[in-house]
Design brief:
The protein is built from 18 helices and 9 strands. It is of the alpha+beta class.
């Protein structure tokens, strides 16, 4: 009798393990319904097996049954509160249903039980990201990174949170590190390419999409974006004043509508001016424009005067459109024509340049605030915005 009592549970364990192996094999083949049926049989044989509940919950999540998955995974957590995969899977099922506060609660409990578990911290950051709490998301990601510094998914997630905070430079750096850690990551490369393109770094974005297509030749979205970016870059180079004959500058809307007059040449600089602003164009031996510089000689006047002649509209914080002041209109028009971009893109670049004096690159051009000697007034320096071909 004693040996019989020992044999019965062994037979049950063998049956449960067999069911698990068979169901996992079905999962690998993509037969979710059959796998779930076997997981159910396994659970009937061992109703208090937390691992069985987790496996079933994950399979139900894969099938899109988040509500059913939640019930199974919650039961697993009740059976074993320290089962971290169960809490993470439960949080994922809750997130899939939009139950973000409940998901965060589960992940906070998991993190409290295992503060150094990188997967839990990464999922916690993702849940905070879903809630729009980007600072908290980044804090969780940083904690995870201290444990798992070489996790490419973590760097990708950090990039998304940084981009949501408008910290574009840091976001691009995070995406780049994610790609370095996992060169075959389609998501990281595609997102990096999108971020670079939004900054006008078309050449770099094109390089990332080309690399992506070497790993995933059938990616239609990447191929389509690559074609669009190549066309946009070609059009931008055709339309911008940089690289074109200086006669194109004299005929531009910036010079004609704002009333700039030709004030001659000083060395390799062509100088055009009004009483309140000047434009300098550095030209090559064949009169092609190598750089453009805009300075406001009377910034206070330009900030108060109307830029109506240039036809530039801006939108106030309440969404009301209005005519830009002269300083803004000159800056936006200078960027629009100098770089060959849309007014919207130029307005975004002007806002960026106005809020941060650091130099940055856009479409093969360096944009920087610079101080130069005033070419037609000895001893005077002027400060302004400089566009220079890389």
């Amino acid at each position: 009798m004693e040996s019989t009592r020992r044999l019965a549970p062994c037979a049950t364990v063998l049956a449960v393990d067999d069911l698990r192996d068979r169901s996992l094999a079905l999962l690998e083949r993509g037969d979710l319904d059959a796998a779930i049926a076997l997981f159910e049989q396994r659970l009937a044989a061992a109703p208090d097996d937390a691992d069985a509940l987790v496996d079933l919950g994950l399979a139900l999540s894969s099938r899109g049954d988040a509500g059913a998955a939640e019930k199974r995974l919650a039961a697993a957590v009740d059976l074993d509160p320290d089962h971290l995969p169960a809490r993470r899977a439960l949080a994922a099922a809750l997130r899939a249903q939009g139950k973000l506060d409940a998901a965060v609660f589960q992940l906070l409990r998991a993190a409290a039980r295992s503060p150094a578990d990188a997967a839990t911290l990464r999922e916690l950051g993702a849940a905070f990201y879903d809630k729009g709490l980007y600072d908290k998301a980044l804090a969780a990601f940083e904690r995870a990174r201290a444990v798992a510094p070489s996790d490419p998914l973590l760097l990708y997630a950090m990039g998304l949170a940084l981009e949501a905070k408008k910290e574009h430079g840091a976001a691009i750096a995070a995406y780049r590190e994610s790609v370095r850690l996992d060169p075959a990551s389609v998501a990281s490369r595609h997102t990096l390419a999108d971020a670079l393109a939004s900054f006008g770094e078309h050449e770099l974005a094109i390089a990332e999409l080309e690399a992506l297509l070497r790993f995933d030749r059938t990616n239609e979205a990447a191929a389509g974006n690559l074609e669009v970016l190549r066309a946009a870059l070609g059009q931008m180079r055709t339309d911008r004043l940089l690289g074109r004959p200086v006669a194109q500058l004299r005929a531009s809307a910036l010079i004609q509508e704002a009333g700039f007059r030709d004030q001659g040449r000083v060395g390799d600089l062509v100088v055009l001016g009004t009483p309140y602003a000047e434009v300098y164009a550095a030209v090559s031996a064949d009169d092609a424009i190598l750089s453009l510089f805009l300075t406001l000689l009377d910034p206070r006047h330009a900030a108060k005067a109307s830029g109506k002649k240039l036809g530039v509209q801006v939108v106030d914080a309440d969404g009301t459109p209005r005519t830009a002041d002269l300083a803004t209109a000159l800056g936006i028009t200078f960027l629009r024509e100098g770089l060959g971009i849309s007014g919207t893109q130029a307005a975004q670049l002007w806002q960026r340049a106005a809020s941060d004096p650091s130099p940055f690159a856009y479409a093969g051009v360096t944009i920087a605030w610079t101080t130069l000697p005033r070419p037609n007034r000895s001893g005077n320096d002027v400060h302004g915005l400089d566009l220079r071909l890389l």
